Amino acid sequence: MKRTIIASLFLVIACKEEKKEIKTDVRPQQTEEKVVLNNESNEAEDAKKWLEKSIVDYFKADIGSEEKNREKITTKDYFDYKTDATNVDMDVDGSLTEKEFQDKWKSKFDTNKAGVGVGFLITAQDWDKIEVGSCDLKSSSKDEYIFNVVLTDNSFKAKYPSVIKVVKQNGSFLIADVLQDEPK
User: Fold this and answer.
1) Which of 82, 105, 130, 139 is the most buried (most CB within 10 A)?
2) DSSP string spanning 16-71?
3) CA-CA distance, 100 to 51, in Å (whole number)?
4) Buried b / exposed e across 121-147, counting CB within 10 Å, b at 16+?
5) Alpha-carbon distance 72 to 120, whole Å?
């Protein structure tokens, strides 16, 4: 009887020791994973705050400096792309036809969602006060964040949904693409 009790006691102690070893092996990996996820989540939150502030500031700024302000918050490629999209078939220097625009940019952007012939971020020519109605993280990867955004203008009872890609370059966030539906 004593031997059975002692054997059982050794078995219980051995199991507890084995469980401790398993826990210590797994724990550092879990901690590292949580730290990485928290950093990604903080970056995404920073990108979201930057995007919301940049949009509001862009629409508050003097209309005469619109192009200069857009250039500050976008990547060079996106700035050039959106400028071309806005000017398709217009009578301005450097204006492209629809086909020329498609051919020039189709390898880098979804030209069907360029917002051809309309402004940056919204399709309206006139607005009163543009606000960010919602800005939700859709997906993220290293230094790239995709947001579902709805801009609103309550005076005109207008909503402007879009998908905006924000990238982090040289320590700063920039808009790298805006998928806009064509006006109906």
Assistant:
1) 82
2) HHHHHHHHHHHHHHHHHHHHHHHHHHHHHHHHHHHHHHHHHHHHHS-GGGHHHHHH
3) 31
4) bbbeeeeeebebeebeeeebeeeebbb
5) 13
The owner of tokens 């971020």 is: 121
What is the spatial distance between Cα 163 and Cα 149, in angstroms, rounded to a whole number?
6
Of the candidates 109, 126, 108, 129, the one whose C-alpha atom is nearest the C-alpha of residue 118 is: 126
Record the tokens describing residue 51, joined without a space.
Answer: 């995007």
What are the residues facing 168 on neighbouring strands? Answer: 173
Question: How far apart are alpha carbons 119 and 131 in whole angstroms?
Answer: 16
Express as a percent the part of the chain with pLDDT over 70. Answer: 76
The single residue listed with the structure tokens 């700024």 is 61
Statement: the pTM of the whole predicted model exceeds 0.90: no
Q: Which helix (H) or strand (E) holds 10?
A: helix 2-60
CA distance 175 to 11: 62
- 126 CB-near residues (< 8 Å, 6+ apart): 156
Tell me the three state secondary structure of residue 3.
helix
Instruction: Name the token pair of 46.
Output: 């920073």
**pLDDT value of position 22:** 42
